[in-house]
Amino acid sequence: MKTSQCLLVVSVSIVATVTTSFAGALQVVPAPTTAVAKPEVVYNETANANEEVAAALVRATRNNTRVLIQWGANWCGWCKWLHKSCKEDKKLSRELSYEYEVVLVDVGRFDKHQDLAAKYGADLKKNGVPFLTVLAADGSVVANQETSSLEKSPDADPKGHDVAKVLAFFKSHQAPTLNADEVLDASVAAAKSQGKLVFLHFGAPWCGYCHRLEDWLAKPEIAVIWSKAFVDVKVDTERMTNGEALLKTHSLGKNGGIPWCEILDAEGKALVNSNGPGGNIGFPMQPEEIVWFAEMITKSGARLSADDVAVLLSSLKVPAKSK
User: Fold this and answer.
1) How far is CA 149 from CA 66, 78, 162, in A?
2) How confident is the model over 240-257, as pLDDT tens digits?
3) Domain 49-172 has what CATH class?
4) CATH says 180-316 is which class?
5) Cα–Cα distance measured from residue 297 to residue 311, given in angstroms and rounded to the nearest whole number
6) Global pTM?
7) Cα dihedral sign for 243, 245, 248, 252?
8) How does pLDDT run across 165-182, given as a tens digit for each residue?
9) Domains 49-172 and 180-316 alike in fold
10) What confidence tier does 65 reach under pLDDT thresholds 50, 70, 90?
11) How far, rounded to the nearest angstrom, does the alpha carbon of residue 99 sit from its chain's CA centroid?
């Protein structure tokens, strides 16, 4: 088990000094005060880890990623060193943002979330923290890893974890790469068997508006309506083989950025795409973008009621600020 680093907060009293001015009057001048740094908080000590892991598994299913649980605590210096490396090292940060849904689980004094640790076979009391657990999207355990073997040499200054070792661990357990053509073919086949259309959208891990579109589609009230008419398929232009090439093929090289969307029939024939009168609407937010999104639904012949469409469009509109 790693040696914990407790944070000592020293209160500083304010001392007043009395000085005499040139006119003989007395003035009370407060002495300079020293600001006390607040302890760094990495782990949310009030979070429900069971709920956070469950939500991460849903995202992993959607994104073809893994879930990485970092078990630790705010009193643990080694936990903070690992978190700092994962956040600040560009290679580690990119690997995690592209390939993992990260959940930081506070273990308290090894008296919190022990049921969750037992569920995934993470022996924290034996191995100490930080401790890493990698889960597949179906919740099965891919790997449990103590982190002593991932540390720098004992005489290293500053102390911490060996970035190359940590990166190698992450890369060795990331989800298998998917082929974009195969993913689309499977979705077209599913649409044909279900009598639906295909809603194809292209995105990438770094694209904020892509995530907004995906999060919107994943909302329960939206998903229940969307699934009536569409088989939803996401193609990651960076993480899928042939992802970028497929985007160029479908958009004819005129996508205007991502997210770029297209509605296909059950035979894989393109019906309409997100290139509206003003260019690619991406994630529809502005009035003219929402209008074209409505046109896409209408032009595709999607089997949605007027009420269903109204709910979809209303959810895209940003409420006006109260005056």
Assistant:
1) 22, 13, 9
2) 999 999 999 999 999 999
3) alpha beta
4) alpha beta
5) 13
6) 0.84
7) negative
8) 999 999 999 999 999 999
9) yes
10) very high
11) 10
